[in-house]
Amino acid sequence: HCGYAAIIGRPNVGKSTLLNHLIGQKLSITSRKPQTTRHRLLGIKTQDNTQFIYVDTPGLHQRQGHAMNRYLNRAAISSLVGVDVVVWVVEASKWTQEDDHVLSILRDHSSNIPVILAINKVDQLADRELLLPFIAQLQDKYSFSDIFPISALRGINLSELEQKIATYL
Ligand code: GDP
Ligand code: MG
C-alpha cells in the first residue's frame, strides 16, 4: 500500500504534533506515485508494506473575502485533489469559526474522499463524558468515515488512528 493522507485543521489544533508522532524517525522517499506541486509533503513513513505520505493543505484556515484569502482557499482546495484520505484534526474542548470554515470546505470539496475525524487533546478534558455530545454534534454536521479521540502530545490512540489511515491507502 502507498498513498496520500492529508492532515487538515485550523491552526493550533495539533497537526504538527500529530505528524511528528506518526512519522517518528523513519523517513524515506521512495514513492513512485505521481506527486503534484499542489501537495506540500510533510513526511513519508514506510512501515512493513505500507507507505504513508502526509501532505499539507495550505491556507485552509483562511476565510473568504480578501483576494489573497480566496487564492489561498483555492490552493487548499486543490491540495485535496488526489489524496486517498483526509484526517481532519479538531480540538476536544475548543471549537472556533475557523473549524466551521474547514467544515464548509470539506462539505464542498471532499465528496469522494473518506474523512477521518481526529478529536485531539483529549488529555485536556476534565470529563471524558463531554466527548459524547461533542461527537454527536459533529456527526450531525458531516458523515465521517471514522472518529478517533486522540492526544497527539501524549500518544493516546495514535496507533489505532494510523492503522485506520493505512486501510485507505
Ligand atoms: P498545529 O498548528 O495544528 O500544527 O498545532 P501544533 O502541533 O503546533 O500544536 C499547537 C499546540 O497544541 C502546541 O502547544 C502543542 O504542544 C499543543 N498540543 C498538540 N497536541 C496536543 C495534545 O494532544 N494535548 C495537549 N494538551 N496539547 C497538545
Ligand atoms: Mg503546524
UniProtKB/TrEMBL annotation:
Region listing for G3, in residue ranges: 56-59
Domain Era-type G, first and last residues per copy: 1-169
Keyword terms, alphabetized: Cell membrane, Cytoplasm, GTP-binding, Membrane, Nucleotide-binding, Ribosome biogenesis, RNA-binding, rRNA-binding
Gene Ontology CC annotation, any one: plasma membrane
Keyword Transferase belongs to the record: no
Residue span of region G4: 120-123
Residue numbers spanned by region G5: 150-152
Membrane topology listed for this record: Peripheral membrane protein
Gene Ontology MF: a single term: GTP binding
GO-annotated biological processes: ribosomal small subunit assembly
Superkingdom of source: Bacteria
Chain segments carrying region G2: 35-39
Protein name per its UniProtKB record: GTPase Era
Full-protein interval shown: 4 to 172 of 300
